[in-house]
Design goal:
With about 150 residues, this protein is an alpha+beta fold. The chain contains three helices and eight strands; from the N terminus they run βββββαααβββ. The chain has a single domain, classed as 4'-phosphopantetheinyl transferase domain (Ribosomal Protein L22, Chain A, Alpha-Beta Complex), CATH 3.90.470. Helix content is about 20%, strand content about 30%.
């Protein structure tokens, strides 16, 4: 079938670009650029783990009481932060004003009548990645491609 001569991106009502029959999402932070590609809705977020700002203040505004109780270190903070961002990208909402309405402790989260699976992991000692995807997806694969 080959590669089409042109690729036309469409926009959702929230102005999220998409390709018909292919979903993708991008994130970048620090040394990494991440792309997630699939047939179903998905979102991805990667963040550099920084300790140079007031995490506690941000946690009070962005995390539920239950999430704040679970935060024991910076990795926990960034796990919840990247999960929320990945979930909102998967739903096409983008970052919303009230992050307290979403709780991302579980590996499965319901949002707008859809259930999303959440996976989070450290890429290295200073980058954390989370991906949100349709709970019915059975296989998720990860590859690292370096510029060297």
């Amino acid at each position: 079938r080959g590669i089409p001569a042109t690729i036309k991106f469409l926009l959702t009502t929230a102005n999220k670009p998409y390709l018909p029959n292919i979903n993708f999402n991008l994130s970048h932070s620090g040394d990494y650029v991440v792309i997630a590609i699939g047939e179903n809705a998905l979102g991805v977020d990667v963040e550099v783990i920084k300790d140079h700002f007031d995490h506690d203040l941000l946690a009070k505004v962005c995390f539920t009481i239950n999430e704040r109780k679970q935060i024991g270190n910076l990795e926990d903070f960034y796990t919840f932060w990247t999960r929320k961002e990945a979930l909102l990208k998967a739903t096409g909402e983008g970052l919303i004003d009230n992050l307290l309405e979403i709780e991302c402790i579980s590996h499965r989260v319901k949002r707008h009548k859809e259930i999303y699976a959440l996976k989070s992991f450290l890429i290295d000692d200073k980058h954390l990645l989370s991906i949100a995807y349709d709970e019915n997806v059975e296989d998720v694969y990860f590859w690292e491609i370096t510029a060297n």
